[in-house]
Amino acid sequence: MRIVDICEITKPISSPIRNAYIDFSKMTASLVAVVTDVVRDGRRVVGYGFNSNGRYGQGGLIRERFRDRVLEADPAQLLNEEGTNLDAHKIWSVMMQNEKPGGHGERSVAVGTIDMAVWDAIAKIEQKPLFRLLAERKGLEADPRVFVYAAGGYYYPGKDDSALRKEMRSYVDRGYTVVKMKIGGASLAEDQRRIEAVLAEIEGEAQLAVDANGRFNLETAIAYAKMLREYPLFWYEEIGDPLDYQLQAAMAEFYPGPMATGENLFSHQDARNLIRYGGMRPDRDWLQFDCALSYGLVEYLRTLDVLTELGWSAKRCIPHGGHQMSLNIAAGLGLGGNESYPDLFQPYGGFPDGVQVEDGHIVMPELPGIGFEGKSDLIKVMRELAQ
Ligand SMILES: O=C([O-])CC(=O)C(=O)O
Ligand SMILES: [Mg+2]
Asked: Which residues neighbour 183 within 8 Å (Cβ) at sequence distance 6 or greater?
């Protein structure tokens, strides 16, 4: 049993939207296939992965360093003890050989993308849904019913309050109970007007979260906190620079409601610093680390260990990214839920065909691997890369 190839292609996921920090007009993502020589159900096992939106494709790093390290390793060194399957932890170590600690940069995105494909292959070789395999390995009970919220509410040219209301209404009509919109890309007064418009639309049916995408300095963060705390928000997200733990810690004084952050922290060391120094409150705040951007599930397991050591429950994690990998982690390891972008970043985001949101939750279908084969538009582009 061995990995015979790792293929990568960088694909556009561009759209005219913008948040407080970036626009997505040139956004790309890496799609990766880990091709094995294993056959299941008459088909070669190929694991697939991709990186989340917000960071660009990683073809350079994947092709120059990480692919070759895996392909040049002794195949026996990449297997579990029994030699019956690939070992994601060993493959991870091979990818990270000769890499110094710290300076995580976007190396973590390249590794995380390949790691997703490796886990897809492992679960397919075992002919199980990844969430069942993860729960089994941890001695946990899987829960296929996962909380999901609808992320959107971007700024784009010509979008007025009625278009924003219509967008949020459509999420509520599709079964979501929490919706999210962007703030910080307009004046405070304008954002307040947008928030009030959305709250008027969804009142009594859903809750609203807001996301500043790391835009605010301390002064602006506080000014927004004083405005936002007058509303019953689900959370106030990524207020300041992701690495400014002191700013995050200071916010607790001004914002009693739930806050969320972590999508731009790319290692368990960064996550540990956030918990140590960011003043996050384990009884109400939310952690959004996204394995597809941060060295994959092998590293995410370390992050979960760090959280446990520091007195946090996995239930406080609702990852960024809206992909099926995090849905599997949520269902298998008991996270609090997952993000979803009902109308964006297709075909990568979303659920297998036929999965409906009901009362803010989906139920994971019993598909082998991560479940990409159940999403016809996605598996089509994956199989174009390798099969
Ligand atoms: O706009 C983005 O970069 C995505 C984002 O922050 C989120 O989904 O929370
Ligand atoms: Mg965000």
From this structure: 20, 191, 194, 195, 210, 211, 212, 224
